[in-house]
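in:
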């Protein structure tokens, strides 16, 4: 693959990455604007997803070869299905449970983003991943400390902020990548002229 083709490919991919970053940031702002609606929709979608997972597990249970795996899969399917139905039809109580899970998720995500930041540290813009980790950690901690009273606003607002930060990080990293590709392209052109 020639250098020029590689540079064009990097520019094309970074352009798509910037586009998806802008979409993500816009979606994050929308989620922040309607936090309770976002929380209810999220809870209902998760509930129905768990119902379908439960049905799949029941089907897998019927295809089990041994009684031990059959009962384990059967129990897992029933548990997933019942939890899913509870989430889908008892949204406010489910939003409270989901809020606690979200706080935990954001704390775990903060840890993973921190690891990613230090893995790519020599690259320009690695600090944005560290900023994303700090924001996720602060938001996760806020949710856990204020739980369960934070349930009316937390899921929509915090998911929105996390999506917004992820979109901004994607835009910044893709812009830096595109800038480096432009610098390499100019250097290649100068070398070709000599």
């Amino acid at each position: 693959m020639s250098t020029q083709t590689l540079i064009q490919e990097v520019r094309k991919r970074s352009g798509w990455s910037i586009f998806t970053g802008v979409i993500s940031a816009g979606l994050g702002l929308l989620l922040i604007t309607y936090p309770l609606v976002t929380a209810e929709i999220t809870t209902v979608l998760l509930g129905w997803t768990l119902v379908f997972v439960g049905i799949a597990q029941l089907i897998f249970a019927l295809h089990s070869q041994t009684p031990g795996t059959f009962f384990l899969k059967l129990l897992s399917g029933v548990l997933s299905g019942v939890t899913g139905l509870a989430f889908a039809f008892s949204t406010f109580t489910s939003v409270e449970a989901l809020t606690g899970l979200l706080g935990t998720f954001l704390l775990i995500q903060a840890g993973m983003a921190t690891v990613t930041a230090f893995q790519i540290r020599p690259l320009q813009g690695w600090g944005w991943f560290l900023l994303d980790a700090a924001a996720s950690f602060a938001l996760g901690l806020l949710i856990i400390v204020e739980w369960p009273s934070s349930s009316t606003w937390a899921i929509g607002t915090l998911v929105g902020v996390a999506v917004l930060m992820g979109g901004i990080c994607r835009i910044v990293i893709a812009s830096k990548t595109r800038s480096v590709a432009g610098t390499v392209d100019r250097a290649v052109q100068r070398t070709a002229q000599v």
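note: The chain has a mean pLDDT of 81.
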